[in-house]
Design brief:
Chains A, B: It comes from Saliphagus infecundisoli. Chains A, B: GO terms for molecular function: DNA binding. The structure is a homodimer. Chain A is of the alpha+beta class. Chain A contains ten helices and eight strands. The first copy, chain A, folds into two domains: 64 residues, Arc Repressor Mutant, subunit A, CATH 1.10.10; 173 residues, Beta-Lactamase, CATH 3.30.450.40. In chain A, a hairpin with a 2-residue loop joins strand 3 and strand 4. In chain A, helix 5 runs antiparallel to helix 10. The first copy, chain A, binds a DNA duplex through helix 1 and helix 3.
Chain lengths: 253, 253
DNA sequence: CACGATCGTTTTGCCCTACCAAACATTTAT
DNA sequence: ATAAATGTTTGGTAGGGCAAAACGATCGTG
């Protein structure tokens, strides 16, 4: 995120208010005011303005996010040209593997899940369309990091704040860089339970002929069904095939 | 939309800016400034603040909606408890009919499409998830209007501004009220090409045991494949069955 | 490649307005 | 029924949002 020189304070307030509504799933004036750290009156005016525009709706005295965001989300997705091309292949990955398959892109140094497809035995995770996470501890994240332009990778890594989510999480820049090198050689990135213990996965980037990274797809599942043999055997095979088809379709766009 | 007594002007500005980005699919400072009617400097500060929060991203000198909206959209959708229950039945409707099937809810007097499923021969329309339209000229809209609480219906109708989209569009309050009465008796609402000439459909509301309207589902298609016999025969039959299953599942929530 | 034109960004100062505190209205709890 | 808590509105003030202009970067063109 570039730092704004002259931020509009009132806008920042409103965004903070919206974030409280997002995090709580609906809140009342007093609760929002306490959370954001401003007076009740101020919060009320902000919520009223947002409501007038359909960004917030009021049920009784509880304010919630309005459905207008769904409209904006659709238009934001429009920017991802390869979306439609990708989803059908992710569906196939989920069906073939029986696991959870994901399509993720990078924005401002975060991985943003844009599509999920659940196979027969798919794990239940908190991942949803729009879910954001760090790049250094996921298969898709590392896949994208490994293949993006070097200067961008350096910039993103420089700003990373590593957090030890599980015993396997990489928390060192140079360990990460070594793994990225291995990923570039093999073409597949793995998550060996680095986000959630017992949850593993494999992913690969989607690139055009110039090498520009558009996103990544992955298959994730419990380690008990995804032993070494499968995780480094048929799963990468499925992913490679899917990526190949997607990349061919990109070219014709 | 309730009218705000003390709207926050700067927030309204920002929302106007976002709306320009939505409508244009990405714009530059000067263009946004002209469109919104404020100075370049002001627009720049707003965009910078939005960018800092991930709501807008900058590609070169063009600003576009950020993927953060996808996250917010997901949380907004959470409010619709029947969402997951409904989508699988809408999929079935699309497959059975081969046409386009929709799930729509009402918010602030507008119909908002929350899910679409395309059958084999589905028409290509501009309808997308998040798409908003008026209630008086669609099957889902009339279905919801017909079955909602009387006072709410009166209020919504009182604020309607009828527009003659096609020769068949209802533009008179009392003609609409008569049709709603017929819809309540039959249980199915029709769109006889009132939105787009040649595009017809049938829909029905989803209600709980108290009669509260949660939304509506519909099947729409070209009149050449949806003649009177089919539109008032097997199509309503499919819809009735789907609604029945959804309503049973609601009860168990 | 140079030059002008256009656009993006930053600065400045003024006027407005976003904010808080408090009063008032409404709802909730006991 | 009464009190306590919350939602909404009001007024005054100080901080900030705004337009205009200067500055800097970029684009297009001859």
């Amino acid at each position: 995120m570039t730092e704004a020189k002259n931020p509009v304070q009132a806008v920042q307030r409103t965004l903070d208010v919206l974030d409280v509504l997002r995090a709580t799933g609906g809140a009342r004036v007093t609760e929002v005011a306490r959370e954001v750290g401003v007076s009740k009156g101020t919060v009320h005016c902000h919520l009223a303005t947002l409501e007038e525009n359909g960004y917030v709706i009021k049920e009784g005295n509880e304010y919630k996010l309005g459905l207008r965001f769904i409209d904006l989300a659709h238009h934001a997705k429009d920017r991802i040209g390869i979306f439609d091309v990708t989803t059908s292949e992710v569906d196939t990955l989920a069906e073939e593997s029986g696991e959870l398959a994901l399509f993720t892109v990078e924005e401002e140094g975060e991985g943003i899940c844009l599509y999920t497809a659940e196979g027969e035995n798919a794990v239940r995770t908190e991942i949803y369309v729009g879910y954001r996470n760090n790049l250094y501890h996921t298969a898709v994240g590392k896949a994208m990091l490994a293949h993006m332009a070097e200067e961008k990778r350096d910039r993103l890594i420089a700003h990373m704040e590593f957090e030890q989510l599980t015993p396997r999480t990489i928390t060192d820049e140079y360990v990460l860089r070594e793994e990225l090198e291995a990923i570039r050689e093999e073409g597949i990135a793995y998550n060996h339970g680095e986000t959630i213990q017992g949850l593993v996965g494999a992913g690969a980037p989607i690139r055009d002929q110039d090498g520009t990274v558009y996103g990544a797809v992955s298959i994730i599942g419990p380690v008990r069904r995804m032993g070494e043999e499968r995780l480094e055997g048929e799963i990468p095979e499925m992913i490679r095939r899917a990526v190949n088809i997607i990349e061919i379709n990109i070219t014709s766009l």
